[in-house]
# Entry
Amino acid sequence: MTTYVLVGTSPTDATRRHELRSQADRLGAELAFLQLATPSLITVLDRLADAGTSRVVLVPVAGGHDGPGPSWVRRIAAHWWRAYGEGAPELATTAGALTDDASFDDLVAEARPITHGGPGLTSPAWEDVPRHRRQVLVCRGPRCTASGAEDSWVALVLALMRHDLGDDDVLVTHTGCQLPCNHAPVMTVQPDDVWYGAVDAAVAEEIVAGHLADGQSVERVRLRRQVRDH
Ligand code: FES
# Structure
């Protein structure tokens, strides 16, 4: 059983969500958004995975000229799949964006798998220790999640893509509570030992532009840390 999800990608798509909702209903698909509207793609994928859905095909839609292309949907979905772990459904994306209802069947017939879930899953790409220069630890503990960590994470990943920073440059990893919950949402950049608090989507983009792309930490939202003497 395959579940199809139309994915709004651009700010324009967020403003025409009622139109997209009607289109999704006509096509028997779910609806999700990469940015600026709910439900987010990650929320929908979590829900489908929790419900035991075995296969999901993501179909990007692209209204206007200011949105990311289908490859961004693919990358966000791949990040999600790795974070979800065991029990994630098989995931595929269409090569192009949906333009009208008539193109839906042809697009989904040629959807390319991101993964094939199931026991024994492996990949040669997972053999090597990653070569990234920095690692961003995104807190997904209870307080950070309640404070919008998911939106911050999506904004972070999209900004990394805009700056052409891949996994070899910045490895993004989800964590449980990192402890300074009062500053939620929290992100940490290692090995720089820089901690950030109140990381909303706009701040996440600032961290990418200032710190991860340019090497300058964003002092305005930096949390000071005392390293314990032994
Ligand atoms: S939940 Fe994120 S720091 Fe505690």
In short: DSSP finds eight helices and ten strands in the chain. The first strand starts at residue 2 and ends at 8.
